[in-house]
Design a protein that fits this description.
By secondary structure, the chain is α+β, with helices and mostly antiparallel strands. The protein is built from five helices and 15 strands. It folds into two domains: 4-217, 2-Layer Sandwich (BirA Bifunctional Protein, domain 2), CATH 3.30.930; 225-268, SH3 type barrels (Roll), CATH 2.30.30.100. A hairpin with a 5-residue loop joins strand 12 (235-242) and strand 13 (248-251). It is globular, with a radius of gyration of 18 Å. Bound molecules: biotinyl-5-AMP.
Length: 270
């Protein structure tokens, strides 16, 4: 792989690759700094890169969230990575890749005694007293030369930043803040192993339903009163379910709405 980001050469993370030998994630690279790992892998995909390529970085100058928002993190304080996948799943299940990666982090953190939940559609929030967003996910798709669709899915996870002393303009929390000190590479390896499990499950016919059930158990959103902000207008109601494609089902007492995309604000019960 001749990846190049801002004229920095990608370095292969061989040790990580070894423990992931039975997964699709065997080509894992690191670059000290780049614009956005998602953008780098989209560009690699258009040049013929294959399923399973991973790029991690220590710093992004233009880390992206949804709708051109920024993902912010000082150098070497976050786990920042993207993976390129060509999932063998039905097109209508592509929306499930984001929650599958979110669940992977939730399960890894549970193994370290840290409680977290998936906040629909693309966040992981730490539960309990120090509630806040610990990770965000951005999935993007690209049609490659043979016209098949590839997905780049990236995660930013707050490892050592922010702390309660940092005045950040969003509700964020880091793993260090809740007492978990973990090497970003170890975290990456554990997440990729878990993500491989989730992807293999999804590739089975009953996979989407199994994922839906696990998501319902580990959702921060289901059961809450929410305000959904969408281009087409806001909807307030109770988050009651997820459908098989990952859409959020909201009930306003009279009608149910199926939400495919949008921002969700959890409201306090009246
Ligand atoms: C996300 O978007 O949360 C998706 C973030 C994905 C970032 C990864 S990093 C590796 C890969 N390469 C990229 O370029 N991107 C991906 P969204 O739901 O739109 O949330 C963005 C919002 O989260 C911002 O507008 C801030 O309010 C907040 N935010 C920014 N940085 C944050 C952080 N470090 N921790 C918690 N919240 C943050």
């Amino acid at each position: 792989m001749n990846g190049n980001s801002n004229h920095q050469t990608w370095k292969e993370l061989e040790l990580i690759g070894k423990s992931l030998i039975n997964t699709r994630f065997r080509a894992i690279y690191y670059v000290p700094q780049t614009g956005s790992t998602n953008s780098d892998l989209l560009s690699q995909a258009s040049q013929g890169a294959e399923d399973g390529l991973v790029l991690a970085t220590g710093h992004q100058s233009t880390g992206r969230g949804r709708l051109d928002r920024l993902w912010e993190a000082p150098p070497r304080t976050n786990l920042l990575f993207s993976v390129l996948i060509q999932p063998k799943i039905f097109h209508q299940s592509f929306q499930l890749l984001t929650p599958a990666l979110a669940l992977s982090l939730v399960n890894v953190l549970a193994g370290h005694g840290v409680d977290s939940q998936v906040k629909w559609p693309n966040d992981v929030w730490l539960s309990g007293k120090q509630r806040g967003k610990v990770a965000g996910i951005l999935a993007e798709s690209i049609k490659v030369e043979d016209l098949s669709q590839m997905i780049v899915i990236g995660m930013g996870c707050n490892v050592t930043w922010p702390t309660s002393k940092d005045n950040v303009p969003f509700k964020a929390v880091s793993l260090k803040e809740v007492g978990l000190e973990i090497e970003p590479n170890d975290l990456l390896c554990a997440i990729l192993l878990e993500f491989e499990n989730q992807l293999s499950k999804l590739e089975n016919p009953d996979g989407p339903e199994l994922l839906r059930k696990e998501l319902l158990e580990k959702s921060a959103t289901i059961g809450k009163r929410v305000l959904v902000q969408q281009h087409s207008g806001d909807i307030e109601g109770q988050a009651v379910d997820l459908d098989p494609s990952g859409a959020l089902i909201i009930s306003d007492g009279e009608k149910e709405y199926s939400i495919l995309a949008g921002d969700v604000i959890h409201l306090r019960e009246a």
